[in-house]
Amino acid sequence: MRFGLAVQLLVFGVSVLAARVQVTWDVGYKSISRDGFSTWRAIGANGQVPIPPIYVTQGDVLELTAINHLDKPITLHAHGLFQRNSTFYDGVGMVTECGIPPGGQYTYMIDTGEQHGL
Fold this sequence. Notes:
Layout: H1 2-17, E1 20-32, E2 40-45, E3 61-68, E4 105-111
Parallel strand pairs: 1-3
Antiparallel strand pairs: 1-2, 3-4
């Protein structure tokens, strides 16, 4: 009986610590000049190149909404994430997922429960 109560408290305590992290990326073109003379058209998020990092704690659920302001379909791919039970989020357009059409948006729901890293 006491063991069952301890397990319930442990599970409840862990679930309380988990959070839903909501991030929106407005993906669009941005003119950049790395050398101060020439400009190039780059792809960024929220007007930033490189794209801003996302910080989560293991166990959080990342809710990442990508809004496509480009003139081509896009997908997102993240290095270093295990894609267990979510291979459809791997970011390979027309292979593992359809692209987000121009003017469209899609929300990725990524459970970080089994993720490890920095």
